[in-house]
Amino acid sequence: xxxxxxxxKQGIKPIGIGKKPxxxxxxxxxxxxxxxxxFVKELRLIVNKxxxxxxxxxxxxxxxxxxxxxxxxxxxxxxxxxQKYFKPRSKSxxxxxxxxxxxxxxxxxxxxxxxxxxxxxxxxxxKFLSGVKDFNFERFYAxxxxxxxxxxxx
Length: 154
Fold this sequence. Notes:
Blueprint: H1 4-9, E1 23-29, H2 34-37, H3 39-50, E2 63-70, E3 83-87, E4 92-97, H4 102-106, H5 110-129, H6 137-151
Parallel strand pairs: 1-2, 2-4
Antiparallel strand pairs: 3-4
Helix pairs in contact: 3-5, 5-6
């Protein structure tokens, strides 16, 4: 067995270990939206390719994790609420966003699903990030909005 440090010294890059992405977009949902959920990966890749958290935050925040909660109105399982929370140890800021119209999303085309996710991401970032200390919300929001416009999602 070889340690991580020894592997790096020998020029071996360990598989599965690398820089954590600046932005993560996840979902909490049920099985009925599995096709539309696959588009979350595209949204996440576009945001990470074009935006860098260091442009908006001091060292305090290194990762922004957005979770889109997509559940039917009559959901009887775990109750998920919109919220913002920060984990100082990982320097990660979490946003849980719940306003997606479930019925509309489950029948959406790829472009429609991306538009819904982009719109809700903008709405949620405006709601939760506008007052965050050490985070340039105005610049982030403008860049995110411009990126989504360029993609044709808003």
